[in-house]
Amino acid sequence: xxxxxxxxxxxxxxxxxxxxxxxxxxxxxxxxxxxxxxxxxxxxxxxxxxxxxxxxxxxxxxxxxxxxxxxxxxxxxxxxxxxxxxxxxxxxxxxxxxxxxxxxxxxxxxxxxxxxxxxxxxxxxxxxxxxxxxxxxxxxxxxxxxxxxxxxxxxxxxxxxxxxxxxxxxxxxxxxxxxxxxxxxxxxxxxxxxxxxxxxxxxxxxxxxxxxxxxxxxxxxxxxxxxxxxxxxxxxxxxxxxxxxxxxxxxxxxxxxxxxxxxxxxxxxxxxxxxx
Length: 276
Hints:
Elements: E1 21-26, H1 37-45, E2 49-53, H2 70-85, E3 90-96, H3 98-107, E4 114-118, H4 128-138, E5 141-143, H5 152-158, E6 165-167, H6 168-184, E7 192-197, H7 205-214, E8 220-225, H8 238-273
Parallel strand pairs: 1-2, 1-3, 3-4, 4-7, 7-8
Antiparallel strand pairs: 5-6
Helix pairs in contact: 2-3, 3-6, 4-6
């Protein structure tokens, strides 16, 4: 776990000092920490204890990912979340693509302060699963042409971080879990911010709209971006992505802090009223 040393001062959760707010950022398939780096820095600047995790099998050679899949990834996210909770009173989950799907899954089983998903898959294209299954029999990997980024300047800037190959077995693992994820969504009750890109070539925008319909969160927001492709944190709409994410985290962090102050005030009142 690699929490930024510049984040808010640590304290033991549950004490009477101001609550520490955390955020766990989860990148997508074939992604890296750099995908969420700018958002991570913005969160840290706001005093959030932010962890920009690296999913198992990523950050090295694509062959390291071939034996891995949903089980290893979801376990890693839950493990990182539980470690972050040891330093924080409340933690937000923020995920892109596969990272968004993993965040939804974990939020169905763990208490979180809120969840932000960016272009997370839920159904995908109907032809994709059989195509991946067939391709896997022929070759373990397929060439990756480029990231799905519309902004040509951003495309050139981030090119060096793109894997040249996409592993078929891990993709199939994710696709196989999506029906279960759909059944888990109604059990999620944390506030949710769901972002979709209208011109996404990887995950259809309708998947995000379906997440919005199915998720059990009482407070939920759907944001549709009109100028970006799949990797919205790097594309034309990135400033809107950052602003809306920060506003969401800050709004719910303030609610948590208000409740905490009311609780502390109540404890102090009870202490004063207690007979000597």
